Structure to design on (371 residues):
């Protein structure tokens, strides 16, 4: 690359927004579900049930449209900072696939790419599985004689762009409910459930494990403490889980959000602010598991439930993603760069350590790591 082309995102030539993917038409639902669950031991009954969730919404998941909007927001933020770099879109489980994005980049002569993922926490499903799918797309291109080098930004659960945006969204909602009703709402944080075995092994192999649940517990507690300080009163909170999908014999992280709303009702809680901090956009798990199921549970219980939005295209979040890209580029250039965090001071490495968040079924090549 010419010296004159150098910019703050050097050495990267394109950003690839890397996401989960979702169906966009009824006939895409089953192929998508089979791809997601291939070899992962999810019972057929569960697949049929989840297919119904998608079909209930016309067979179209909102996730790709949300990611297209996020790409537009990232492009606008890059332009505001006079950073010129293309932003491509690549999914793990639906079109446009990661390999499509890499091929498109390669055709334009761009071979150093930066993956910005829509997944904030650490565990196999939210980190290594992305890295495996990046590697398999690279292998697909290599078979066509095309090489692309791909790095990714760090897991950003405690990057201020993500965590402070969540804190502001929850804090504003709690204040609004408190002012409207005079009752301090109970904060119920929610994230995707995992098999206990996946949580137990999340994080670097030489560490204590359970990094996924510990990250969520730490962010929930920090947001609750800040909300309490702003409201000037005590605020209670819990972390709950949604979207469990394994067989009943397999233990998954609990409590389920619906079960927990029932427990809270028995304890006399009347008002809940439900905060999906585990997710980055209001995709199918949010609109079905929370806005359909959990909303029904709350209605049955006669509880006041306010589901707050995910970070989506929130400006603070989008600015944070650009900051994370700049941080990763500076690291790639070998520079010392500030790595802001909130809460806590622990920075997730952008290059994962060997054995981090392992695949408990099969060993597969994974990109963006030192193994
Ligand atoms: C941690 C985590 C995230 C957050 C991080 C991230 O965002 O990546 C996430 C996101 C998502 N999960 C999604 C969809 C699905 N996840 C499934 C299944 C599973 N998810 C798991 C974990 C996670 N999933 C796990 C451990 C399984 C069991 C199978 C296995 O061990 O791998 C299944 C199979 C059917 C079922 O639900 O059983 C589907 C359809 C969509 C798309 C939504 C849309 O279309 O709008 C999104 C964003
Ligand atoms: Fe999932």
């Amino acid at each position: 690359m010419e010296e004159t082309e150098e910019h703050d995102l050097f050495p990267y030539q394109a950003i690839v927004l890397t996401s989960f993917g979702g169906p966009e038409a009824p006939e895409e639902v089953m192929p998508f579900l089979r791809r997601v669950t291939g070899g992962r031991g999810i019972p057929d009954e569960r697949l049929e049930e989840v297919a119904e969730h998608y079909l209930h919404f016309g067979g179209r998941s909102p996730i790709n449209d949300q990611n297209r909007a996020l790409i537009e927001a990232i492009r606008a933020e890059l332009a505001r900072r006079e950073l010129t770099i293309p932003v491509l879109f690549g999914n793990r489980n639906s079109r446009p696939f990661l390999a499509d994005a890499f091929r498109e980049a390669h055709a334009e002569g761009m071979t150093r790419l930066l993956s910005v993922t829509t997944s904030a926490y650490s565990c196999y499903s939210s980190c290594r599985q992305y890295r495996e799918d990046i590697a398999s797309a690279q292998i697909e291109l290599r078979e066509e004689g095309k090489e692309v080098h791909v790095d990714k930004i760090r897991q950003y659960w405690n990057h201020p762009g993500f965590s402070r945006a969540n804190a502001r969204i929850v804090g504003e909602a709690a204040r609004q409910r408190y002012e409207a009703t005079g009752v301090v709402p109970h904060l119920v944080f929610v994230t995707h459930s995992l098999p206990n075995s996946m949580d137990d092994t999340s994080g670097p192999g030489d560490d204590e494990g359970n990094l996924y649940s510990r990250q969520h517990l730490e962010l929930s507690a920090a947001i609750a403490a800040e909300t309490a300080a702003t409201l000037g009163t005590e605020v209670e909170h819990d972390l709950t889980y949604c979207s469990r999908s394994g067989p009943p014999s397999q233990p998954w992280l609990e409590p389920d959000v619906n079960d927990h709303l029932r427990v809270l009702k028995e304890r006399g809680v009347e008002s809940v602010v439900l905060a999906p901090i585990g997710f980055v956009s209001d995709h199918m798990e949010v609109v079905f598991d929370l806005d359909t199921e959990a909303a029904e549970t709350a209605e049955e219980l006669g509880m006041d439930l306010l589901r707050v939005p995910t970070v989506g295209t929130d400006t603070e979040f989008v600015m944070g993603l650009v900051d994370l890209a700049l941080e990763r580029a500076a690291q790639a250039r070998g520079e010392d760069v500030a790595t802001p965090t909130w809460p806590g001071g622990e920075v997730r490495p952008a290059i994962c350590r060997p054995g981090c968040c392992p695949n408990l079924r099969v060993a597969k090549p994974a990109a963006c790591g030192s193994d």
About this structure: The chain has two domains: 3-156+314-332, 160-307. Residues 160-181 form the longest helix (22 residues).
